[in-house]
């Protein structure tokens, strides 16, 4: 007797191409701010999540009121690049709908929170007018494809960066339900034209993430993705990509069958055709072999380990008309964003603006609006939740500098703060057990005096925090990682390396703030006294603490 499929699988196959009863939920169900239960699953495929304000749950329950439901919309922006006109449109849409706050994610896109149900259509329609969409930004499909963000990395940046859009387009679902439900309200195409050889009617067992890295930068944390593509450049020519599979960070507290895993590099492709074919067929292997019974064990990493790396590669190559070539050499020597002004090989300027945990503050939002109105740059979101103003000529650089001074943008902050990252967590994420982006800035402020005490204010130690073990802020590849276990309590993860090539490990469980600060003080003290020459904090912690406990 076969195991019973997850209930989500039934919802997908019976959804009529992801339509479900979304129209009825939005148009007819005025008694609630939510959509119908099955539609809560389907709305994700259209780039939205149902949320509620958890800070107000108790108050509303006392008054016998429904939860204060709202929606988060996440855009699909392959490689994180948009025009000045699109930034202005996003700015205006965020002012008109939702909370007014723009949130830059760890996957090079933006989210709007606090949208009410009746605002979904006008918001999506406004984005559509700006040639932006949220198709497949969430759900059991390939999500936003990310790529190393800074053009100064390589003269070939544009050529490589364009793969993000090519892959995103290749892996989009064929259903036109997004346009039918949210844009025109009419059936556009005959359903026969929606036949989807990739996703069929069941889609993937779980979400799927792809990243493209351009060495020497691993700013996208390429090994944390289901597929990682590592660009190989020789003599200023793109030779192809190393392909890594099976990365993923999400865990479940108390479930030993769940774990974080870094992707395994399995081979090399030397042409665009082969690279895109390999990416496509990796998804078909996951579609056919992924776990559809237990969603906690359904990511590609578990499929790879179930089949074994060699078994997965053999199945993949049976679906290709070629063999993967041997892995090419590469090296990562940085992961941080390049803040301030940098110039590329063509002489154009790029200014990287620090956005703490991706939350664009009002003064930054006004600055960016005024830059966009000049129509002299593009906008590039980074995988570290920051923003690059790009393609600025020598002639126009002074105009941006004037606005930087006007809005006091170029503030000096510690290296630790620049290398911090946090997920949204409370109050909107339903999975959060503890705070994330609202609390980490406070914790960093309390750690900074310790850095000053030990002369480490310029040491680019990475610190990351999530409100639950799902790992959206990628805490498991940080030198200092904190994972929420309950109100004001965090597991302390230690021993990750600086460039995202080694997972950290559990160091201490369920620590309060005071306990965290005490432990960090001890660790930094030992670090400055006993580190080897040029040894990073993460490598020191791994050598002296984690490796000795294993």
Written account of the structure:
There is one protein chain. The chain has 550 residues and is an alpha+beta fold. 33% of the residues lie in helices and 18% in strands. The chain contains 17 helices and 19 strands. It has a five-stranded antiparallel sheet with strand order 3-13-14-12-11. The chain has a five-stranded mixed sheet with strand order 6-7-8-9-10. Strand 13 (378-381) and strand 14 form a beta hairpin. Helix 10 (300-307) crosses helix 11 (309-319). The longest helix is centred in the middle third of the chain and has 18 residues, at 272-289. The radius of gyration is 23 Å and the shape is globular. The two termini are 41 Å apart.
């Amino acid at each position: 007797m076969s195991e019973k499929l997850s209930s989500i699988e039934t919802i997908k196959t019976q959804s009529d191409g992801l339509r479900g009863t979304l129209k009825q939920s939005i148009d007819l169900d005025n008694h609630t701010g939510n959509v119908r239960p099955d539609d809560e699953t389907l709305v994700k495929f259209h780039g939205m999540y149902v949320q509620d304000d958890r800070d107000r749950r108790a108050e509303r329950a006392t008054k016998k009121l429904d939860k204060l439901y709202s929606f988060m919309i996440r855009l699909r922006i392959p490689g994180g690049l948009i025009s000045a006109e699109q930034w202005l449109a996003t700015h205006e849409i965020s002012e008109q709908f939702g909370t007014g706050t723009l949130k830059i994610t760890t996957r090079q896109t933006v989210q709007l929170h606090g949208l009410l149900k009746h605002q979904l259509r006008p918001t999506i329609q406004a984005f559509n007018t700006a040639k932006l969409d949220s198709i497949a930004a969430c759900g059991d499909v390939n999500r936003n494809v990310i790529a190393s963000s800074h053009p100064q990395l390589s003269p070939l940046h544009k050529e490589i960066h364009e793969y993000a859009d090519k892959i995103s387009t290749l892996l989009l679902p064929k259903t036109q339900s997004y346009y039918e439900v949210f844009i025109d309200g009419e059936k556009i195409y005959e359903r026969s034209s929606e036949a989807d050889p990739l996703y069929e009617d069941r889609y993937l067992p779980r979400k799927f993430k792809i990243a493209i890295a351009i060495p020497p930068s691993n700013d996208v944390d390429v090994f944390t993705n289901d597929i990682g593509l590592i660009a190989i450049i020789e003599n200023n020519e793109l030779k192809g990509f190393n392909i890594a599979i099976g990365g993923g960070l999400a865990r479940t507290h108390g479930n030993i069958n769940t774990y974080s895993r870094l992707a395994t590099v399995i081979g090399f492709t030397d042409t665009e055709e082969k690279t895109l074919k390999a990416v496509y067929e990796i998804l078909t292997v996951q579609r056919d072999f992924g776990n559809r019974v237990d969603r906690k064990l359904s990511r590609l990493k578990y499929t790879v380990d179930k089949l074994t790396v060699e078994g997965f590669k053999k199945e993949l190559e049976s679906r290709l008309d070629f063999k993967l070539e041997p892995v090419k050499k590469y090296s990562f020597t940085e992961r941080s964003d390049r803040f301030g002004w940098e110039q590329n090989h063509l002489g154009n300027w790029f200014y990287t603006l620090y956005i703490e945990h991706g939350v664009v503050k009002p003064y930054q939002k006004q600055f960016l609006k005024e830059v966009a109105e000049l129509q002299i740059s593009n906008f590039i979101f980074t995988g570290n939740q920051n923003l690059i103003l790009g393609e600025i000529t020598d002639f126009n650089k002074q105009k941006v500098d004037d606005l930087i001074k006007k809005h006091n943008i170029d503030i000096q902050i510690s290296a630790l703060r620049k290398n911090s990252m946090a997920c949204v967590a409370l109050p909107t994420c339903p999975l959060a057990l503890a705070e994330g982006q609202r609390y980490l800035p406070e914790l960093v402020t309390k750690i900074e005096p310790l850095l000053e005490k030990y002369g480490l204010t310029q040491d680019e130690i990475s610190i990351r925090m999530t409100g639950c073990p799902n790992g959206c802020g990628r805490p498991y590849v940080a030198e200092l990682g904190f994972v929420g276990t309950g109100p004001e309590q965090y597991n302390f993860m230690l021993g990750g390396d600086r460039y995202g090539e080694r997972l950290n490990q559990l160091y201490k469980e369920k620590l309060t703030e005071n306990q965290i600060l005490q432990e960090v003080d001890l660790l930094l003290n030992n670090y400055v006294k006993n580190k080897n020459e040029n040894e990073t904090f993460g490598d020191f912690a791994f050598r002296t603490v984690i490796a000795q406990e294993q």
